Amino acid sequence: SLLYPYGPHQGDETNPKHDDGTSEAISLSIPFTFYGKTYQTVFVNNNGVISFDESVRQYTPDPFPLVDGHPFVAPYWADVDNVLGGDIFYRQTTDLALLKDISQDITQYFPQNPFTATWALVATWDHVAYYGSTSEKGNTFQAVLTTDSKMFYVIFNYWDIQWTTGAASDGDAETGLGGTPAHAGFNSGDDTNFYNIPGSQTDAIINITTTSNVKVPGRWVFRVDDFRMTVVDPPQMNNNCWL
């Protein structure tokens, strides 16, 4: 599977069943550097965002850079409603087997910077429904923050994306499409450092399971401490699908 192991059997915490809800404040055992700033607290927000220092309950995504200056990573920012379906899991881990897998993957993608992970935060949205849904559609995706204490990376894994938009974002309640679709990328908190994954806030974001910057469909990997390496292999448009 493209996803790293997750769920209660992995020791994951589970977010409360609240529309626009969030995890409790997560005190990081290893501080995480993002766009040159170091953070010790994150929130795993139900609406597809991991935010630094404060939670994010906004359900309709905005393009980056954000005017409110919130620093966060957004694997799939959209109006999730886990009351209607699905679960959001997260854990901090120093499990050697998992860290070995993460290290091998990142070193493969960035061979000029050999990487041995010492810590990771794994957050997984498992078959989550959208607000106002009258369907059984669910999205499954994952974000991983990891470091060796010198370099800091984020991995986005997209396993199954069936909807783009909640009903309060003008999406269709039956299809989960239309309106203001999901957004994926990074916002540093200033006006100049940000990244929007191609297809964000367009209908094409439904195809994010087929796109990549590391030649692995459904996976995007970024070094985020200073964000020097945004895209390794820029995706190309082909027949209206991002490849």
From TrEMBL:
NIDO domain sequence ranges = 75-227
Instruction: Tell me the segments the record calls region Disordered.
Output: 1-22
Any one biological process term the GO annotation gives = cell-matrix adhesion
Q: Where is the composition biased (Basic and acidic residues)?
A: 10-21
Name the InterPro entries on file. Answer: Epithelial_Barrier/Signaling (IPR051495), NIDO_dom (IPR003886)
The protein depicted here goes by the name TECTA protein
